[in-house]
Amino acid sequence: MATLPILQHEEKIIQTVDHNPVTVIIGETGSGKSTQLSQILHRRGYSTSGKIAVTQPRRVAAVSVARRVAHELGVQLGEEVGYAIRFEDRTSHNTRIKYLTDGVLLRESLANPELSEYSVIILDEAHERSLNTDILMGLMKRLVKVRNSDLKVLITSATLDGNKVSKFFTDCPVLTIPGKMYPVEILYSKERPSSYIESSLKTALDIHVRDPEGDILIFMTGQDDIEKLVSKLEDKVRALEEGSCMDAIILPLHGSLPPELQVRVFSPPPPNCRRIIVATNIAETSLTVDGVVYVIDSGYVKQRQYNPSAGMYSLDVVQISKVQANQRAGRAGRTRPGKCYRLYPSRVYNDEFLDATVPEIQRSSLAGSVLYLKSLDLPDIDILKFDFLDPPSSESLEDALKQLYLIDAIDENGAITSIGRKMAELPLEPSLSRTLMEANNYGCISEALTVAAMLSAETALLSAPGRSNTEKKRKHQISNLPDGSGLGDHIQLLQIYECWDQNDYDIGWCKDNGLQVRGMLFVRDVRKQLSQIMQKIAKGPLDIRANGKGEEFRRGYRNLRKALCVGYANQLAERKMHHNGYRTLGFQAQVVQVHPSSVLKADDLGKFPDYVVYHELIATPRPYMRNVCSVEMRWVVPVINKLKTLDVYKLSGGVEHVEKETERNLPDLPKKDVEVAAAGDRESRIQAARERFLARKGKK
DNA sequence: GAGATTCGA
Questions:
Q1: Which nucleotides of strand B lie within 7 A of protein CB?
Q2: Which nucleotide is nearest to A458 (CA to C1')?
Q3: Taking the C1' atom of B5, which residue's CA lies nearest?
């Protein structure tokens, strides 16, 4: 352990932390920052007045790093060194060093905004810029002032732009600690290939027949491309003349692969055999594959992004950033010097790639985060001026405010309501937490809990791919579902879970019905957690047992659907007159279709229900509503009335913000236009600002 | 009549 580079910098680190409330530490992979930093501070007495918290963006990382540190200190895990992740808290009153996911720390800060049990908070892997890390960075900036130098904050990262973060934390010091990496030779293509599958195929084969041993890791964008490339590689490798070169095994690697197939990449290849691993970006950060010497980088990644003006998500193939490209290349230099083949010219890398990946906070719906921040009740913070390292667009913040207003989480002035306060306690999207609140009044809390839990895990439910179990098939496979699923997907998800409940949570039942066991067990955990929180909020026992063909079933799930209509007030759609297309009822109407995977049934005339709520809009590339539920017009009316009262200006707290928007979004407008925009009344000012903003975006 | 990169409370 004495060889870890970070230990040679111990004195320097301690000196800096002693004299500064915030320190940024840039430590390349292999520097030992995740395991050593906490131990150094512990050794030097920083854990006597409080605990040392170390956040991780991923649960597995929190657990495995905690385990290693406990081992290095020779203590039992859960004693001096422990961890906390969702559903699992392995800490005790003895714990001095606590590893946790950043989501858990955010939850803790809801109960105790000053996080007073900690004397040190280390935000690790900050360069990944997860939504939660970004919010924590904003909170830390405030907390070091409030806690008046009895808190030390360290931001650590592999490749984060240290100067930017340092500037954010009022010019705090930046320490750089070298890593232990082998050199990686970068080879660029002369031009972008017309097909990166073909190009990867050719490059991989060239390496295989020509270069010495060492595994090949190929980065592709998704499951489809991976499967295509894997089968082509298998054909080509099989066709190679026997004995002309070593053997090769081809392994796909992506998130929807069942765990037992995923772990194959951790077993070393047999002698005289090369592994060719074809992976998504899961191999960029989440999984580390040993033995990789050659990396082939397509230069693309799939990214989910949210469009706040349409309220719609899309999954797009986009160019990676320089940070990602370097991360990928680094995967070749972990055990010895390696090579990285970039399937794009250096010009593309230099001129087209962004320096860093667009942070998640600028790509997601912010309703949940805004509600969370509002519920913290920080006296000195106005949410629209919350100090983010990279602020989200004001459009996105306004979208969040509108959503929250429509579901009664904030009032017309943007202040959090008592309902909103309770909603923030629940680890759910606001639409679902609002549904739970309402269901509690209507006596269908048990059903609503199940729906919320099922939707939290929906993608995890599908059976493993490759066994031709498509979603549609799944829906038809479930045997003996009571009638009623024609009302929509929410109801069917409910019935699936209740069926499982009646089968005593039997694992075999899941397998027989094409459901992922892991996913269903997760649903059960989530449901239990939500039940506990709801009981706390309701200040009394609730009937939360799953109850199959109970009252709700007999009444056509009317109460549940009514509750959903309130929770999804922002996600309503009305069927168009003469066909089965829908128009969303929001601030901006969209024409959308029911997703083909839906179980929603048409009536005898072939018509869908007049009104539905949807869980999500997804552009793929046509706009679809995914997971819909039939509702009744008279439940919709109050929502439409509320929509009319919506005043973004008031919600976002006044003129100042509108000016800020003008300033931030329209820096290159001719001065005259800004003056015109500023001269009108406030509505037309907002409108003018928005139009110009959109026009400018369109041009880009 | 489509198609799930990846994390997380």
A1: 1-9
A2: B4
A3: A302
Using the CA of A224, give the nucleotide whose C1' is nearest.
B3
Nucleotide nearest A107, from its CA to each C1': B9
Q: How far is the CA of A471 from the C1' of B3 (A)?
A: 9
pLDDT at residue A274, as a whole number: 92
How many CB atoms are located within 10 Å of the residue A12 CB?
12
Residue whose CA lies closest to nucleotide B8 C1' = A103
Is A538 a residue whose pLDDT tops 70?
yes
The total number of residues written for chain A in this structure: 700
The mean pLDDT value of chain A amounts to: 85
Rounded distance between C-alpha atoms, residue A107 and residue A113, angstroms: 9
Q: Is pLDDT at A694 greater than 70 in this prediction? A: no
The distance (Å) linking the CA of A647 with the C1' of B2 is: 37
H or E stretch at A447: helix A445-456
What's the Å distance between residue A128 CA and nucleotide B4 C1'?
A: 21
Residue A490 near residue A455, CB atoms below 8 Å: yes
Under a CB-based contact definition with an 8 Å cutoff, are residues A265 and A253 in contact?
yes
Least Cα distance to A531 among A627, A442, A614, A425 occurs for A425
Q: Which nucleotide is nearest to A462 (CA to C1')?
A: B4
Cβ density class A654-690: b for 16+ within 10 Å, e for less: eeebbeebbeebbeebeeeebeebeeeeeeebbebbb
Percent pLDDT > 70 in chain A is 88
Residue whose CA is minimally distant from B7 C1': A58
For residue range A79-130, what is the model confidence (pLDDT) as tens digits?
999 999 999 999 999 999 999 999 999 999 988 889 999 999 999 989 888 9
Work out the number of other CB atoms within 10 angstroms of the CB of residue A552.
24
Q: Which residue, counting CA atoms, is nearest to the C1' of nucleotide B4?
A: A459
Q: Quote the CA–CA distance of A220 and A175 in Å, as a whole number.
A: 34
CA of A620 to C1' of B5 (A): 14
Nearest nucleotide by C1' from A253 CA? B5
High-pLDDT (> 90) share of chain A, %: 53
Buried/exposed A470-504: b ≥16 CB within 10 Å, e otherwise:
ebeebbeebeebeebbebbbbbbbbbbbbbbbeee
Q: How far is CA A632 from the centre of its chain?
A: 33
pLDDT of residue A278: 94
Mind listing the pLDDT tens digit for each residue in A402-444?
999 999 999 988 899 999 999 999 999 999 999 999 999 999 9
3-state helix/strand/coil string of A295-327: EEECCEEEEEEEECCCCEEEEEEEECCHHHHHH
3-state secondary structure of A72: helix
A231 three-state secondary structure: helix
Each residue of A249-292: pLDDT tens digit?
999 998 878 778 888 888 888 888 899 999 998 898 888 888 89
pLDDT of A655 reads 39
Distance between the alpha carbon (CA) of A471 and the C1' atom of B1, Å: 13
Give the pLDDT mean for A309-330. 90
Q: How far apart are CA A680 and CA A691, in angstroms?
A: 14
Give me the half-sphere count of Cα atoms (radius 13 Å) on the Cβ side of residue A150.
Answer: 11
What is the average per-residue pLDDT within A675-690? 43
